[in-house]
Amino acid sequence: MKQGILFDLDGTLWDSSRQVVEAWNEVLAQQPDVERRITIEDMQGFMGLPMDEIGRRCFQGQKLTEERIREIMKACEEYENDYICHHGGVLFPYLEEVLQDLSRDYFLAVVSNCQTGYIEAFLEYHRLSEYFTDFESFGNTGLQKGENIRLVCDRNHLTQAVYLGDIQKDYEAAVQAGIPFILAGYGFGEIDADVPVIESLKELRSAVEQVFAHGTGMDER
Fold first, then answer.
1. DSSP secondary structure string, 151-169?
2. I want to staple 185 with a disulfide (CB 3.0 to 4.6 A). Which of 25, 59, 197, 211 is the partner?
3. What value does the mean pLDDT of the chain take?
């Protein structure tokens, strides 16, 4: 039996909202046709959404074409990755300790709706690559999170898996992928479902063990 824990990134493993806001606002300040500036509250509301949806929400009401929005978003994404590589983010308490422990017994992966290069920047800056066997993103595949979760489960031949995330769309993605969900209660959001909740990463092993003890394996697709 091969058991896996798949993780959302923003609001689940770290908080990079301040760093991302700083990077985006530097880019936006250089765009003569953009009046918009981003706040940390804005960014925490965006995190977890696909990048194309973030673009639509971010520039709603601005007199910009879809093509221009994509151009601005691409510039923000590229500079954000570079900025994160040099500044990192804020890891949630006990993260590396918990990953080191869990990686002894479980397959670990990150699945996020971010752009290509963002997960890599997270892993590189904080030197966490050794704990994760795989990762996937919207930027790499163009697929929604539920599809990417299932993709990672299938290509790594997992017999049981669980997804840890912090917002409603994370829960919906896990349901779409056919795996159980655990809520990171310390993250950015809430969900409308009765699921296991952890208030600290130190509680994750116990929650995972309980989920797997009552689970029936991967849903057939």
1. HHHHHTT-SEEEEEESSHH
2. 197
3. 93
